[in-house]
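Still learning. Any example?
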Amino acid sequence: MKDATMGTSQAISAGIDIPPPLTFLTSFFKTPFQSRPSGVSDQKVKAKSSGREVDHDGMRKFIPTILVLALAVIAFFSLTWGFYYEWPDYVHVDYGIPFTWATHTFSTIIGPPAAPWRVDVVALQMDLIFWLGLIVVLVMIADAVGRSRAA
């Protein structure tokens, strides 16, 4: 049984493999699209130029996270981005893609409006269902593609 308090040189001489520091960070910065030699599994591949191992499974697990974050940012901006319309008799800003769920009116032909904001809660709910449903569907597709490649 190996002693947990032994030094690095003792561990190397005893045949214990010690990983270099910050190995967990380098797995995200390795290139995932390198050709693999025949007879080598898809999980770990030796890179020809640097001699480092490429963790394809780690990258496959990281891609859905990036996809969800990117779609969440897109959904946030699509719900909060305003489109300014300056018509001669109706100056306003519409919010929401693909459904306009809020309108902020600045002026009309008869002067400033009594109620400058018009909010359509049903359109807001439809926007949220659209964007959150899109995130769920794309993650399911990415998961199915990842599983088909792993098999």
Remarks:
- The radius of gyration is 27 Å.
- The chain has one domain: 8-150.
- Residues 8-150 form one domain.
